[in-house]
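Still learning. Any example?
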Amino acid sequence: MKKCIHCFRPLKDKTKDHVFPRSWYPDDTPVNVQRWTVPSCLDCNNRLGVIEENLFVKLGICVGPSQAEASGISKRALERLGIGDLKIDEREKGHRAALRNKIIKEVIPYEEGMEPFPGTAHNLDLQGDRPIAILISQKDLLDVSKKVLRGCEFKISHRIIDYPYRLEVYFPNEKKIEFVSELFQKVSQVTYFGPGFEVKRGESDKDEMVALYKVTIWGQFKIYGAIGTEDYFNQMSAI
């Protein structure tokens, strides 16, 4: 019996989970671009779908409107908050206003020295003309990033990341990991999903089951991932 790639439980109510959320594809994504889907249980698909939508709004309003790889993303994120010339009924306006107010409550003043999530920018001010910072849940970032990488590994290597292997995700400052950036410049296994997403995968020379990932979203956000055994991660931490 097949298993959900996220929770590993046997699939009873099988659904197709999009590796990259459908709403995250830029407007100029060609119609013939592959949109990977993977087997997921209904519970995981629904749970992750809610997180993806919440994260889309917060990340989307941190993307520059002129970012070529993110065509339409900023506009759509603002529309989720009821901002823009929208043809929606009063009930929907109320839902979007409620979400906007919720986001505003999670906004704090931007102060010099704050280290933002790599790739974000404070290009939108919901409360005036002073710089702001939008709080993003680290758990939500990890959950969605792991879901994306699990999906990529399933499609590329046809396996579920299960014991004795595990997945770790990192959001490093790229200036501090130049050696890793140089490593990925040599990786030949690259998959593009239109202008919005790029996936790079490299394997260990000693164990093909050990893999490194670099996923770029909208030309701005970088997700780094590593798949290995406990021994592998212990060795890496000792370096």
